[in-house]
Request: fold
Amino acid sequence: MSHVRKQIRDQAVTILAGLATTGANVFASRQYPFHKDGADLPALCIYSTAEEIQNSEEDAISHIQVRDVLLVVEGYAYGTDFETLDDTLDQISSEVETAIFADQFFNGLAQGADLSGVEIGLHDGAERPVGVITLIFRVTYLTKEGAPDAAL
Reply:
């Protein structure tokens, strides 16, 4: 069994695989080594960056931990011009948000998810404009202290 944080990332890959814009180009990785010509874009990268843990105040004896993990979904796209690129990034954002909130409990692993921020920028190193949109979701889940592989 793997850490619930990994199980949530894996479920995010499942949730986001097959979106209209990014298709099967979904990777559980911080970095996607796309081709310089952008032929393999658009694509998504999914990873986590931080987690806050609090002991539940309801029952100190049960040692329940309330965990908030930051789940990052980066969407990459290319365009012939910056206006088209921004439109594609916005479409990726729309599809990702819709899909995540349709299964915000991550198939029973989490208590819920909130979108906590979005960043939009450009990615260097490609032959044509490549943009990136970063969606940061705060996903809350519960575990028992000392048992991080089992969601409650």
In short: The first strand starts at residue 26 and ends at 27.
